[in-house]
Design goal:
- This protein folds into 3 domains: about 190 residues, 3-Layer(bba) Sandwich (FAD/NAD(P)-binding domain), CATH 3.50.50; about 130 residues, FAD/NAD(P)-binding domain (3-Layer(bba) Sandwich); about 80 residues, Immunoglobulin-like.
- It is globular and about 65 Å long.
- The chain contains 7 helices and 26 strands.
- Helix 1 runs parallel beside helix 2, helix 3 crosses helix 4 and helix 4 runs parallel beside helix 5.
- The protein is an alpha/beta fold and about 425 residues long.
- The strands form 6 sheets. Strands 1, 2, 3, 4, 5, 6 and 18 form a 7-stranded mixed beta sheet that branches.
- The protein is about 20% helix and about 35% strand.
């Protein structure tokens, strides 16, 4: 069996950023395991700009952002193996992997960082009536076809879901000569960033139909059209609002799911809301010595924030390997419903902690409030919060004295 101080599963922005942070914190016996033939993860196919403004103070495409991290990994001589699939991670931090060259092999790690990213929700989860014709793609698959393979999946397109990938693909398909007939969104608000709605839809006069969904797909060999309908407050289609849109392609941008099969094998406790691990401020999971970061933990808006979170995990993993992490306390973070979830979900040391959270609906003119029981510890006003935009609140060390539970919520002004 191979022995390593730190094994990082996933060579995307989270995995590479965690590796760099751990190395710069004094741990050099690191191995990154990546199942693709290149480092970079999903950023390889994200050729649009908008990356790196926070992290590198310049606007980059996805491949450029990934390349900067890859250059740093190579500069530090951090070992990485490609085309290698991790089959299992045990609670004892034994990583079982396989590739064409080495067959099946095991690595005993002192610490493991999970950075496997996320996958797209498929048509099978949607229960849409109709046959199974050609022309139905997830937005990410269409993105790979266009940006990496040079194929145009279709010429008349309807997009279901207004997540960021769906919005970006509406623009991308338009630029490649396709006609995007509509973007339909089940919720009464978009799930994407405001800048993407403006730059990807409004700039190209692509209609965004809120509170609408696809109720039927027509076509047997190839999609010939879809029926869409407005939905009521219970998200049920209203029959009299059904309309038919001729198209040859349906792109699905209906949510991302953290890729947590390996986490389950390791016995890591998962959040019912995020489908990612339950972690503390160090991004350590319920299994000691196993950390998680990036989209395998919760779905991020920006790769820059993925890198920030991965650095927290990388530094903490290095401290854990040196035996410097101890749990001084356990303060659980609760939400009020308007705040949907927080990351981390608990704080285990008296230290300043940035808490990331998402809200459950669009709220205007609100106050973010942190409470210990009835005592208000912190509050700040926000003109608008929306589910598509990650929010943060800073919990200071002083706020944690004599606290067993913190509640983060919203008050509408």
């Amino acid at each position: 069996m191979i022995n390593k101080d730190l094994v990082i599963i996933g060579g995307g922005p989270a995995g590479m950023s965690a590796a760099i942070a751990a190395y710069e914190s004094g741990i050099s016996d690191i191995l990154i395991i990546e199942r693709d033939s290149h480092l970079g993860g999903i950023l390889q196919q994200c050729i649009h700009n908008g990356f790196g403004l926070h992290k590198f103070k310049e606007e980059l495409t996805g491949p450029e952002y990934a390349y900067k991290l890859e250059c740093k990994v190579n500069e530090l001589n951090i070992p990485h193996i490609l085309d290698t699939m991790v089959l299992e991670v045990s609670p004892e931090k034994v990583v079982t992997a396989t590739n064409e060259k080495d067959g099946i092999f095991k690595i005993q790690a002192k610490a493991v960082i999970l950075a496997m990213g996320c996958r797209e929700r498929s048509k099978g989860a949607l229960n849409i009536a109709g046959e199974r014709p050609a022309g139905i793609y997830s937005a990410g698959t269409a993105q790979k076809f266009v940006n990496m393979k040079g194929y145009l999946p279709g010429k008349k397109v309807v997009i279901l879901g207004s997540g960021d990938i769906g919005l970006i693909m509406a623009r991308r398909m338009t630029l490649e000569g396709a006609k995007v007939e509509a973007v339909c969104e089940l919720m009464p608000y978009s799930g994407g960033l405001a800048r993407n709605i403006e730059q990807c839809l409004n700039d190209f006069n692509i209609p965004l139909k809120l509170s609408h969904t696809v109720v039927e797909i027509e076509g047997k060999e190839r999609v010939t059209g879809v029926k869409i309908a407005k939905v009521d407050e219970n998200r049920c289609p209203i029959p009299e609002t059904i309309e038919y849109i001729p198209c040859d392609t349906l792109l699905l941008s209906v949510g991302l799911i953290p890729e947590n099969e390996l986490s389950k094998d390791a016995g890591v406790a998962l959040s019912r809301i995020t489908s990612g691990a339950v972690v503390d401020q160090n991004r350590q999971t319920s299994v000691e010595g196993i950390f998680a970061c990036g989209n395998v933990l919760h779905v991020h808006d920006l790769a820059d924030f993925v890198s920030d979170e991965a650095e927290i995990a990388g530094i903490a993993a290095a401290e854990y390997i040196r035996g410097n992490i101890s749990n001084e306390t356990e303060i659980n973070l609760k939400t009020d419903g308007k705040v949907r979830y927080t990351v981390p979900q608990k704080i285990t040391a008296y230290t300043d902690t940035t808490v990331y959270f998402r809200v459950s609906d669009v709220f205007r003119n609100v106050k973010v409030v942190v409470k210990n029981g009835d005592k208000v510890l912190f509050e700040k006003k926000k003109q608008k919060v929306a589910p598509g935009e990650m929010e943060t609140v800073k919990i200071t060390k002083d706020m944690l004295e004599n606290v067993n539970e913190l509640k983060i919520g919203l008050e509408v002004l």
